[in-house]
Amino acid sequence: MSVRTHPTPRRRPRGPVRSLAGQLFVVQVVIVAAVVAGGAVLAYLFTAGRAEDAARRQVTAVARSVADSPSVLAAVGAPDPSAVLQPYAEQVRTDTGVSFITVMDTAGVRWTHPLPEQIGKTFLGHIDWALAGQTRSETYTGTLGPSVRVVTPVLDERHRVVALVSAGITVQSISAQLRGPLLALVGVAVAALAVGGAGTYLANSRLRRHTHDMGPAELSHLYEYHQATLHSVREGLVLLDRRHRVVLCNDAARELLALDGEVEGRPLDGLGLPAALVAAVLGAEPVRDEVHLTAERVVVLNTSTIGTGLGRVLTLRDHTELQSLSGELDSVRGFTEALGAQAHEAANRLHAVVSLVELGRHREAVEFATAELELAQQLTDRVVAAVGEPVLAALLLGKAAQAAERGVELTLTEDSRIDDGVLPPGLSARDLITVLGNLIDNAVDAAIAGAAERPDPPEVTVTARIESGGAESAPADVAGRGDGTAPGGAASCAAGHLLLRVADTGAGIDPSAVEDVFRRGWSTKQDDRGHGLGLALVAQAARRNGGTVEVGRDRGAVLTVRLPLARPARLPEPVAP
Predict the structure, then answer these.
(1) pLDDT tens profile 475-486
(2) What is the mean pLDDT of residues 387-404?
(3) In sequence order, which residues have a C-beta less than 8 Å from that of residue 227 and are 6 or more positions away?
(4) How far apart are the C-alpha atoms of 64 and 235, rounded to whole Å?
(5) E strand intervals along 486-547
(6) Which helix (H) or strand (E) holds 334?
(7) Alpha helices by DSSP H, 387-494
(8) What 8-state DSSP symbol labels residue 122?
(9) Model pLDDT, residue 7
(10) Does the N-terminal or the C-terminal CB of the chain have fewer CB atoms within 10 Å?
(11) Residues 229-264, buried b or exposed e (16+ Cβ, 10 A)?
């Protein structure tokens, strides 16, 4: 009996997860509301204080004016002061807009009041300081309710207090005066809150689009994933802004371009990269699988534009090992073709020997076979006797067969000699194949191209030997060097060096083109597609092993490579051609 199980549903986090834009919106709305409310309260308190001060000044002026009036002083001594003062006080009250004007005797008994039934009753408030000849204000609750009032004395000719005058404005009247400004203040506050909220909403809507509605934790995790991914990929990745400054450079790119220290924020053309690579990156058109050489590596470059002109992204792939393997594959393929050609030629010669035997020409058959064997064995014996290093010996034999197939005679000079075990382990066989193989291939091509202009048959001469101490100068005038290092300079050492020299009978290298010989893409062939990388790889391999490359001229071009048998303390700095 089988029991079907269902996958456990993924638990969603408890509570709503608000995005970063949403959280900022709430915080900004609260801040705007608090600022607007605080401003409104402060404005109200300020306005209320100003209104109360204005009311106090108004009632003080009214009370002093009434107390200083001669008619009031004259009415105080009359038999019925109320009959004279009541109409006068009401007229002044109406004209000045105060709530009440009360004239009283020194005992506080009212002679006037807005409410006639309050006449003759005692004044509600403090009159002690007025009896002492002073004018003071207070907020007191009387018959009309809370009011801001002033009590001032009425003085006779002898400056004696004969009566008191009080004028006041009720708090309710003051509040009524504040109602209009308060409503306007509330309207302004509401409008400010609405405008601030709308602006905050629009800003956060844009932020929400840019953050894809993610929360702070999600953005932090996304950044960490982004950094981990960029630095873990094996391809080199470089991001540039619109000013061609480095925004990001992962670990693989640092290794491929040999960049040290802080590179973020620095311009691309200030990193010491090859001029051809910088020109390709800064060009208007994107680059697709373009091969470039750095100081020690062969890299494949791709570029593309970020967005609408925000910058540029560079991807770099290490092509060094693949390029070396391709060179070795080309060498093996050449060996195979040479062996096939030799087998075909041997078959032809064997048929010739068999035919001579069948014709009874035995002596001629032996002489023909012996001569052919001597010619074939002579080069083999010469190479094997002079070059004990198996990689170089095999390469020379294979290249000799290739050259012979193409009608070019490849010879090894008499002074060539390399014993087995002399080359150090640090000098890899792959670099030897790269250096000597590319030099011979270029020399064979040049010799074939120059055969049409020379009566002599095309020829390539190879010199391979170990030199101790100072370096020997080239047999011809030296026209240029692959890294600008003088012979016997930084590349030479007490342990000596390996000298590899290849000369051809071609047209030679134009002196004006010496500066461009070791650039990627330089070639003398008319159809240069796929060419122009050989000499650049030679210079790179020599520089990687602390050696030098020289360009000279004899009957044709002469290229000399010197590789130290002991790596110098510091490799010579390459000089861009």
Answers:
(1) 444 444 444 333
(2) 79
(3) none
(4) 95
(5) 497-504
(6) helix 320-358
(7) 390-405, 429-450
(8) B
(9) 44
(10) N
(11) ebeeeeebbbbbeeeebbebbbebbbebbebeeebe
For position 474, what pLDDT does the model report?
44
**DSSP H or E segment with residue 220:** helix 216-232
Cα–chain center distance at 330: 41
Residue-level pLDDT at 325:
57
Q: What is the pLDDT of residues 76-104, one digit of tens each?
A: 878 888 888 889 888 888 888 888 888 99
Which residues lie closer than 8 Å to 180 by C-beta, 6 or more apart? none
| Closest by Cα among 292, 289, 283, 291 to 312 | 283
Q: Is the pTM of this model over 0.85?
A: no
Q: In the structure encoding, which two tokens stand for residue 350, read together?
A: 């064997």
Q: How many CB atoms lie within 10 A of CB 449?
A: 17
Q: Which residue has the tokens 């060539």?
A: 416
What is the identity of the amino acid at 99? S
Place of tokens 């002599």: 456
The two structure tokens encoding residue 285? 């058109």
* Cβ-based neighbours of 561, under 8 Å, separated by 6 or more: 435, 439, 499, 500, 501, 538, 542, 547, 548, 549, 550
Sheet strands side by side (includes 136-142): 100-104, 161-170, 145-155, 136-142
